[in-house]
Amino acid sequence: MSLQIFGHWLYATPASTVLRQTVWVIPTIQAIHIVSVAILFGSALVSNLRLAGILATDETSAAVVRRYLPWMWSALAVLLLSGLLLILAEPDRTLGNAVFWIKMTLLLVAFVMTLIFQKPLLDPRSSATDPGRTASAKSAAWLSLAIWTAVICCGRFIAYT
Amino acid sequence: MLQDVYHSGFSSWIRQNPGVFPTIETLHVIAITLVFGTIMIVDLRLIGIASHRRSASRLIGELLPITWGAFALAVATGCLLFTANAPAYAANSQFRLKLLVMLAAGLNMAVFHATAYRRIADWDETVPPPAAARIAGVTSLMLWLGVIYAGRWIGFTLDVLF
User: Fold this and answer.
1) What is this structure's pTM?
2) What share of chain B is helix, strand, coil (3-state, %, to 5)?
3) ipTM of the complex
4) Which residue of A137, B13, B105, B154 sits 20 to 30 Å from the alpha carbon of B161, by its own alpha carbon?
């Protein structure tokens, strides 16, 4: 209920009105959002396929993750910023929408998994070759990709629920 | 002919089942992110930004199958979306612009493959690559960004949303 009141308050703010009423603003922010999803998902794809032992196996996991993780963090920052602007412009579309909250939950899971399974590889002392670690890392890589895919699915379905 | 598509059983089926169109759209978005995500890695390497491996030809050989697979999915799902309301899409300026920009991206790729790519052995491990490759990379990035922007605008300008 309080969230609904917050949504109505947000909707009535001048900033929200300007974003909504300037014709090109929402399509442009959405396009920036999609491009950032592509950067994040493309990076997640290559690094997770490497961790799963499918792609670029002649390079170390650490080398691949070192190349893509900074791009993932930057893309994520742009996604959060553009996402916040989209919420500000159309609070009703998101804050009261169950699919939006499922998306946020899955996003948090994917983010934490990236912190657990990819970020430690940046540490030069990490032992990525440990067999036990590799087996769980492989499953985690596939699971990460599945969760990122689910985040995208939820994102598109916000428009329809 | 566009009206025939509109009145076909399959087209009506997409329009009449509320979950179908968003599902196809979702697959379309996933395909787009994979196309742009992988093509961008290659384009950045062509511009001279180091990738996860030094060799440009091996990077291209590694990622291009993913790009093509995703592109095939994007075209297939795109055709299904078009089928849902062929007359409206055909009349939509942003949709036409998107097709034109995609054509330009295809031409840019063809030119790259006919020129700089033929001599890739000479610059495979060179960073930055020769000007022809860098121009192809920048052009490709710009055009695909244009495709995405035009595509997003279709959702705001399509005449009849059923």
Assistant:
1) 0.93
2) 85, 0, 15
3) 0.94
4) B105
